[in-house]
Amino acid sequence: MTEIVVPTLGESVSEATVAQWLKKEGEAVKADEAIVELETDKVTLEVNAPADGVIAKIIVAEGDTVEVGAVLGELGSGSGAAPAPAAEEKPAANEETAKEQASEPLSAVPAAKLADEAKTSPAVRKMLADNNLDATQVPAADGERLTKEDVKSFIETNKGKAAAPAPAASKPASAPAEPREVGPREERVKMTKLRKVIASRLKEAQNTAAMLTTFNEVDMGPVMALRKEYQDKFVKKHGVKLGFMSFFVKAAVRSPA
Questions:
Q1: In angstroms, rounded to a whole number, what is the distance separating the alpha carbons of residues 116 and 134?
Q2: In terms of Cα–Cα distance, which of 93, 94, 92, 59 is closest to 73?
Q3: Less Cβ crowding at N or C end of the chain, within 10 Å?
Q4: How does pLDDT run across 107-121, given as a tens digit for each residue?
């Protein structure tokens, strides 16, 4: 027996949760094939088969927490082909039964179907199928082969008859107005380790960080007046307009530390 153990999970990570088993007991696996998924606080990783064999036993179930080096299951020798014959016998028996059942109607049903196909073309058969009609319902004008004109005339002739029962059919449509049984709308699902860490970090940020915005009001009247006074001279001397950023920088430099 070869043990399937939890590998090294990374720096400062000592435990993980079994998220999902990708293989079941009795299934054959090849070396380096993924057999189980583990989820840590940081990542989700796959544990591969150490060698070729069959999953003999699953020790740790999904959702359980394991540490590094813990045994997840056992890998036995073999190819896993032993149970295959039993599974193959049923399809064989089913095939024989299906052949016996199919051999009975083969003599009667296809005969009528072939007769209908003989008196209709593919286009006529498509028109019949689109209108939910059968070839035996539509009379042929020449008494032998059915044409598209025969189907069209039959549909137009029976259009009023088909439309008559429509109101009766519409009544049941409004009948299913009874309230349906509604199950529980909420479901409690166990959080994964990764989701727990994300939730705790978000809550920690909400508790410690300042979730606010500050505003400082400044009277810009004197600055705008000064800018308007020296704007033209500044443009003539430097070739660019005098903006507010110069005043902001000057104020930041002159402000007390």
A1: 9
A2: 59
A3: C
A4: 444 555 545 555 677
